[in-house]
Amino acid sequence: MTTQPHPGIIKAPGQIKNLVPPRPLRPTVKMSQTRLLDLVKTQCRIFSMNFNPQRLRLGNKVLRQRLRGPALAAWYPKKTVAFQDLQNTYKPLGLTTFDEAEDDREEAIQMSVTNILHAVWQYVDTFLLSSAKLRGKGRPKKKRTAAGKVVPDIGFRRRSRTPD
């Protein structure tokens, strides 16, 4: 039996062919689908992995990660006794406490809210008046007498339809 050289091998010095290495031989035996699933299931059990033949997104990647709770809790300092703890302790006894810092904070909030509302209303009022005047829709000037005195404004007067 004579062996034929692989087509990628040079036969003679003048003949250079495509130098591609030969493919390795593969087994031609095909395994059944159920047998492959059993093999994968056994692999998952041995290596403690999740068996997921439908390839669903189960979130295992996230669940395998280390928990972040202890690291976040260690970041903040331990809680010390606060003034509010004393207030809560003495409240059932009927004793009242006064927290000056809290009182100042609430007062500042109330003042800032009042100031903000006042400034907003003042701005809106000024804006509306000036825009009406610019468009010629403002209130008319007060009527002056011959002596230069201002006549008190009574309200709108209707014109009579009869000619004078």
TrEMBL record:
UniProt-listed Pfam families: MRP-S33
Name of the featured protein: Small ribosomal subunit protein mS33
Subcellular location: Mitochondrion
Domain of life: Eukaryota
Gene Ontology annotations for the cellular component aspect, listed alphabetically: mitochondrion; ribonucleoprotein complex; ribosome
PANTHER family for this protein: MITOCHONDRIAL RIBOSOMAL PROTEIN S33 (PTHR13362), SMALL RIBOSOMAL SUBUNIT PROTEIN MS33 (PTHR13362:SF2)
Keywords from the named record: Mitochondrion, Ribonucleoprotein, Ribosomal protein
Annotated signal peptide: none
Predominant subcellular localization, coarse grouping: mitochondrion
Family classification: Belongs to the mitochondrion-specific ribosomal protein mS33 family.
InterPro entries in alphabetical order: Ribosomal_mS33
Renumbered residue ranges of the record's region Disordered: 138-164
